[in-house]
Structures are given as structure tokens and as C-alpha cells.
Design brief:
two-stranded antiparallel sheet, alpha/beta, single chain, Inosine-uridine Nucleoside N-ribohydrolase, Chain A, globular, 16% strand, 360 residues, 13 helices, binds alpha-D-ribofuranose, binds calcium ion
Length: 360
């Protein structure tokens, strides 16, 4: 994968796109007053494959978020418009720095990064440094950021890109849903230009933050409730499927064997991430939760899903953040999500190794 791909063919309907993009690039009237400098030139063109799905990854890097970013950049089906960050695995400053470090490692610093919420909508911030280390991405020799984050808030960058995109955008949240909830509440009319939300979070069965709840949903259940009630096509990639997506030490060795810096870094990150899962679950390997959400958008046949009603517990402290999946239709409420229940693990691991191999 070339470093910072140059702009390729102008979009087939360049006039329209140019007009829309003119707004985003600051020459139109609709740009928010607090928008940052003009977006990278790469965004003033659309890749020669108009069939690519434009996606925005909202994340809290995080070892599995780092692989999600890498997969999103490596897949030809996807057009990663931006990476936005939220506090979760680590404080916001750390997750933002980590996103920039990963993009620097991959030679893709032209991808805009904007920081979002430093804490949940209502609850106090709880970070998962027990899983990801004090930096949020411990265990490997990652470069320092080669670029700064954009000055505008993540919600403003998402708004500008969604408005500028000739095609509806897919949102892939892989951290607490605070930024997505803020986007929905701040710009409700924008939702019609969001084709779907494919999030990593939740669980039909056992949680991991508590017995009841998965971390991303537990961290900001109020935001999750807003997202699940937003009325857009939503996929919940929860622990039921991500705990099947284990990447083992042997799989990590395939990355190390690539002989590249990126391969070495991800082998080391997986070794660090694997310690937590070995101690807590006795597993050989780690669930690469967030990359499953990206893989499902890129390759819809990879994950087995079922459609049902999912509601979020926001009042009880005991079951805070519980994703109540009504698979039997007992509530009589309309289904609002497809939930991930199975995955072709071997194919998934190959996708990750291929993605890492795409970078130097
Ligand atoms: O529960 C797993 C999720 O919480 C993943 O997204 C991981 O990165 C953390 O954010
Ligand atoms: Ca995450």
C-alpha cells in the first residue's frame, strides 16, 4: 500500500462533488465557523472506484481499534474518510495520539483525525488501561505522531465529511458511543446521509465490563440508547461474535514473519493484548473486537447475523449498559438492529494478516 496515496481520478460526477466539497474545503457558506483548515487534497478527489463504501471510524485506540484502522485502510471495498476519537480504552488525549501513531506507522497521515468527547454524556469517565496499558496502546515500538489532529471537534469533522460525500456514509464506532450520540442530537437531519451504523459493542450473553454489559456500551449507556433509537440501519457486533474472532499467538507470528515494521508492531501489540485475555479467560489469543465491525462492512458474508429488537439499560446500576436483545420478539417492539452471532474465524484472521501485510 503506497504511503499517502496521491489523489486519483476525479469523481465521475466531479462537478457535483466539487460543489459539495467546495463547501467542506471552506469556499462555501455552509462550513461551520469552528471548522479547521481545508481538508487534505486527497479528499478533493474521489478514488477511481466510486463503488467504495465511504466510512468514518470513531474509535478509542486501543489494540483492536488499531487493527480496525489498518483493516479499513487495506480493504478495497472501503474508503476511510476520517478517524475520530473518543475517550474509552484510555483518556481522549491518549486515544487521539494513538490514532495518529497508527496512521503514521501505516504512512497514511493524510487521513484526517479529530478528537471528540473526553467523557461520557452523563457518567464519569472510566478507562480500560488494565487491558490496553497506560498509553492505551502499550507493547510495541510505535512512531510518534507525524501529524497533528485537526482543530475541530470530531462531530464537526463527521458533519463536514457526511455533507461533502456524494454517497451516504457508513459510521463504524468502535468505542463508547458518545461522539455518535452527539452527532445525532446536534445534526439530526444529517442522519438521512448516514447509510448505516455498524458498531462494535454490546452482548446478547455475558458482558466484559460487568457480567451484564460490554465495555463500550457500559461506558456510556445514555449515548448508546440514543444511537440504538436513532432509526438508522444498525449492526451490533457484540461479544457473542467477537469472542469467536480470536487471533492466536500463531496468527501473530504470521505477522511477525512478514519482516516489516508494521508486521513486527502488530505482533508485539497482540502479544501484549494477549496477556490480559490469557489471564482473564485462559485463551491463546485475543478477540480483535473492533476489526470485526470493519470486516462486516467490507465483506457482508463474513459474520452471521440475526435481526431483533435491542434496548439499552440506562437506569439500573447493576445492569447498566446491558444490551437487551429480544430475539424471541417478546416485547412486541420493532426490530432495530442486526446482531452478530457467528464468524468464519479463519477467513477473518487471514483478512487481518493480509491487511498488515499491505503496509511496510
Ligand atoms: O469490549 C470491547 C471494546 O471495548 C473494544 O472496542 C475495545 O477496544 C474497547 O473499546
Ligand atoms: Ca475500541
Amino acid at each position: 500500500m503506497d504511503r499517502d496515496e496521491p489523489p486519483v481520478q476525479p469523481h465521475p460526477n466531479g462537478a457535483a462533488a466539487g460543489g459539495i466539497l467546495a463547501t467542506v474545503l471552506g469556499t462555501g457558506k455552509r462550513l461551520s465557523v469552528n471548522a479547521g483548515p481545508a481538508l487534505p487534497a486527497a479528499l478533493s478527489y474521489h478514488r477511481s472506484m466510486p463503488s467504495r463504501t465511504p466510512v468514518i471510524l470513531d474509535c478509542d485506540p486501543g489494540h483492536d481499534d488499531a487493527l480496525a484502522i489498518t483493516l479499513a485502510l487495506a480493504r478495497p471495498e472501503l474508503d476511510l474518510l476520517a478517524v475520530t476519537t473518543v475517550a474509552g480504552n484510555a483518556p481522549l488525549e491518549a486515544t487521539t495520539r494513538n490514532a495518529l501513531r497508527v496512521l503514521t506507522l501505516l504512512g497514511r497521515t493524510a487521513i484526517p483525525v479529530a478528537a471528540g468527547a473526553a467523557r461520557p454524556l452523563v457518567r464519569p469517565l472510566h478507562v480500560a488501561v488494565n487491558v490496553h496499558g497506560t498509553s492505551g496502546l502499550d507493547g510495541a515500538d510505535l512512531p510518534e505522531p507525524g501529524v497533528a489532529a485537526r482543530p475541530e471537534h470530531a462531530v464537526e469533522l463527521m458533519r463536514a465529511l457526511i455533507e461533502a460525500s456524494p454517497d451516504p456514509v457508513t459510521l463504524i464506532p468502535t468505542g463508547p458511543l458518545t461522539n455518535i450520540a452527539l452527532l445525532i442530537r446536534t445534526y439530526p437531519r444529517l442522519l438521512e446521509r448516514v447509510s448505516r451504523i455498524c458498531l462494535m459493542g454490546g452482548a446478547v450473553g455475558e458482558g466484559n465490563a460487568t457480567a451484564s454489559a460490554e465495555f463500550n456500551i457500559w461506558a456510556d449507556p445514555d449515548a448508546a440508547a440514543i444511537v440504538f433509537e436513532a432509526g438508522r440501519p444498525l449492526t451490533m457486533i457484540g461479544l457473542d461474535v467477537t469472542h469467536l474472532a480470536l487471533v492466536s499467538a500463531a496468527d501473530a507470528a504470521r505477522m511477525a514473519a512478514l519482516g516489516t515494521r508494521t508486521g513486527r508492531v502488530f505482533a508485539d501489540l497482540l502479544e501484549f493484548f494477549g496477556r490480559f485475555h490469557r489471564e482473564r479467560y485462559g485463551w491463546d489469543g485475543s478477540p480483535i473486537h473492533d476489526a470485526v465491525a470493519v470486516a462486516h462492512v467490507a465483506l457482508p458474508g463474513l459474520v452471521r447475523t440475526e435481526t431483533c429488537r435491542v434496548d439499552i439499560e440506562t437506569t439500573s446500576e447493576l445492569t447498566r449498559g446491558r444490551t437487551v436483545a429480544d430475539r424471541a420478539g417478546l416485547t412486541g417492539r420493532d426490530p432495530n438492529a442486526e446482531i452478530g452471532l457467528g464468524i468464519d474465524r479463519g477467513r477473518f484472521v487471514d483478512l487481518l494478516v493480509e491487511a498488515v501485510a499491505a503496509f511496510a
